[in-house]
Design brief:
Elements lengths: L2 H14 L3 H17 L3 H28 L20 H8 L2 H4 L3 E5 L6 H14 L4 E5 H13 L3 H9 L3 E5 L8 H14 L13 H13 L2 E5 L13 H4 L8
Parallel strand pairs: 1-4, 2-3
Helix pairs in contact: 1-2, 2-3, 3-6, 7-8, 7-9, 9-10
């Protein structure tokens, strides 16, 4: 077989195997190999590296879409100077994502606007980048979705949405008092993520008991970030000059 038809066959093999990036880069990479006198091993390595990179990027985009973060936020966008009570070291430790591997929880507490959702999304985005399946939801969305699925007899299927991801972010937990049904759904999700089954499910009757059981499981081996600072949304209105020790200008 001559060189030209070998080349054609090789391109077809790559396309058939859906190695599209390698197929597209075959010609330029072979030219480069000739010019730079690369070995066969080097050419193959380089070509497959391009394919691996493209696949990695595609999977990352897929995980990011799947996670359904309401907006894109990163730790790099977070102004730690604005929140001096929040320990950078603790956040830096969380950003290593060891907590995901070690099945530790993270609980973000604080008044509205201090960056709880921002930090939760940023950790979620970091997790997708590291290859973890991540899912973002609000507590009320989770409860409504599971209740609706339950009415169609599909709760057991829908629960997987919340139990399968390596990282589940439940936002706005604790802003509103939960009704009994919502508390039960959150309890189910949290219990299942602990692989605990339903040993004490039958005893769960009162709101207080469910709430206690949820908190109990969540707090078990958790990192708690209690942000006691000011709202970032209101930062223009809170004597910035005074905070920096400069003149306070009153209009
Ligand atoms: P919370 O969830 O605590 O109510 P958010 O995370 O929704 O607060 O923050 C409100 C807005 O302010 C968001 O747009 C967020 O990105 C931004 N924000 C809050 N804190 C900071 C910060 N320290 N640095 C940069 N942006 C911040
Ligand atoms: Mg929030």
């Amino acid at each position: 077989m001559n060189e030209a038809s070998s080349y054609q066959r090789l391109r077809e093999h790559l396309s058939y195997l859906k190695l599209d990036t390698a197929a597209e880069n075959l010609s330029p990479e072979l030219d480069r190999a000739t010019k730079e006198k690369l070995s066969t091993t080097q050419v193959l390595e380089r070509l497959l590296e391009l394919e691996v990179e493209a696949t990695r990027a595609r999977r990352q985009r897929g995980r990011l879409r799947y996670a359904r973060h309401p907006v894109h936020k990163t730790l790099a966008d977070f102004d730690f100077d604005f929140q001096p009570n929040l320990h950078r070291k603790v956040v830096a430790e969380l950003s290593t994502l060891r907590f995901v591997e070690e099945h530790r929880n993270v609980i973000l507490l604080g008044p509205p606007g201090v960056g709880k959702t921002h930090l939760a999304i940023a950790l979620g985005v970091a997790a997708t980048e590291a290859g973890y399946r991540t899912y973002f939801t609000s507590a009320s969305d989770l409860a409504q979705t599971l209740q609706a699925a339950h009415l169609e007899g599909l709760a057991h299927l829908k629960l997987r949405t919340y139990t399968q991801p390596s990282l589940l972010v439940i936002d706005e937990l604790g802003y509103l008092p939960l009704d009994q049904a919502s508390a039960n759904w959150i309890f189910q999700v949290v219990s299942r993520r602990y692989d605990r089954g339903f040993s004490d499910w039958g005893q769960v009757f009162a709101d207080a008991v469910v709430a206690g059981a949820i908190v109990d499981r969540l707090l078990h081996d958790a990192t708690v970030l209690n942000i006691r600072g000011h709202s970032y949304r209101m930062r223009a209105h809170q004597e910035p000059a005074a905070r920096r020790g400069g003149p306070l200008v009153v209009r």
